[in-house]
Model the fold of this input.
Amino acid sequence: MAYIYNDQSAGDRALSSKINALAVAAGKKTDVALLPVTPPTYTVFKHGGLFHYRDGYSGEVSTGNADAYTVIQAAVNLMTAGGKLLVKQGTYPLTAPITVPVKPLIICGEGPGTIFSLSTAITGFELNPTGAFSPFDVDQFTTLRDFSIFSSEETTPHYGILVQNRHSLIIDSVYFYGDSTSNKMHGLYILGLNNSKITRNHFVRTYTGIYATLGLGDFDDVAIVANDISYILYRGIYLPSNASKVIISANNIEECVDVGIVAHGKNHTIVANTITETKTMQGVGLGTIQDSVVVGNIIADNGMDVANTKDGIKCDQATRCVIANNQIGDLYGSGYQRYAISLAGACSNNMIIGNTFYGNATAPILDGGTGTIIRNNSGFITENSGSDAVISGQTAKVVTHGCDFTPAAHDVVITQTATTTNPSYITYVDTFTATEFTVHVSADPGASTFAFDWAVRKV
Done:
C-alpha cells in the first residue's frame, strides 16, 4: 500500500480522490491511501474585518482583533509543545515580526493567497534559537510553507524570514514578493543553519533571494533545491565562508542585478542543474572554497548590462574544485559574457572538464591559476591530432596545432610513421605559440620525407 501524507493540503486530497476514482472505475483496488487528516492545532482567519484564531480541538474562537500580528503570535505562543498553525487565505498586515520559537512547529498557509504584508521595514518571521543548541534535538523541527510574504518598503533593509542558528528547518513553497525592483526586503536571511531544506520557493523583486552570512553558527548540511529567483536587486544565492556540505540544485536564477550564486565555504558544496542569468555580474562566483563541484548547469548571458566585462563562472580562490558538464555561453548572440570560466592566480588544482562553451565574447577560459586540468570541453580545444612531414631538403616542420591554449613540450607527442631515405630521427620540439609548434629532425630525410603523426593534449 502506498500512502499520500496529507495535512490539510487540498492538492493532495484532490489527487488521491482522482486516483481512487480511476481505480474504482477500472474495477481494481487502489494501492493509494490517504492517511487520516490531523486537524490544525490552531487556525487563523479573518471575519467581519477582525482577525481570529480557532482551537482545532475545542472549536473555540478567540475574540476578534484588528491587528493580525497580535492574533498570529498569540496562537503560536499557545502551542507550548508544538503543533500546526494554519493561516487561511487572506491578507495579514504585520506590525511586528512573528517570532517562531524552538519547538516542533508547522506554520502553513493555503498557498500564495495567504499573504503576510509588510508595509514598513519590519521582519515577517523571526526564527531565533532559545536554550542549548543540539543537532539531535527533535524539538527544533520547524516547517514554514505555502504562504506569501509581500513587501512594499523601498528605503530600509528588512527581512521576509530571518533565521538565526536553527536546525532541522524546512522552508517550502513560500512566495517572497517586492512591489518594485527597488524593494529592500531580503527574502530569506540566514545567520547559522544546519540539516535543513529550502525548497520550491519563489523570490521576485526582492533585494536578495537566499542570503546566508556569518552569524551565530555554521551553514552546514543544507539543501537549496527547486527555487525560482528572479528580478533580484542584489544577489540570488549567497553562501558564507563557513558553509559546508551544501547542495544547490535545480534552481532558476535570472535577471539578478548582481551575482546569481556566490559560493564561499570550507568544503563539499555542489552547484548542479541550475540556470543562471544576471545583469551586471557573473553567473556563479566561487570565492574561498575547496573540494566542491559545479556540474550540469546552464550559465548564460551573464553581465547583460555591462557587455564583455563579466564571466559565466568566476573563481577567486577555488582549490580542488571540479567544473564539469556545464553549458556556458551566449544564448542570444550578443556577446554578453566575457569568459565562460575565469580563474584568478589564487586558484589551484582545479579541473575543468566536459563543458560546452559558445559565444563568449573574449574567450572560453582564462586560466590564471596553477595546476588546472582542462580536458574534453566543446568550444575550447585542448586535444587535437594530425599528420605532417618534414620534406626533402629540410630538417624542421612548423605544425599548426589548432588548440585554444599554448602547449608545452610535455603536451605534445610526435610519432614517426615511415622510414626515411636518409637516416633521420626526431631531435626536439620547440617554438610553442598559441597556434603552432616546430618539430626538428636530425638530418635531411631525403626523397621519402620524414612522415609523422602528432597529438596535443593539455596535461
About this structure: Confidence is low (pLDDT under 50) at residues 1-12. The chain is about 5% helix and 45% strand.
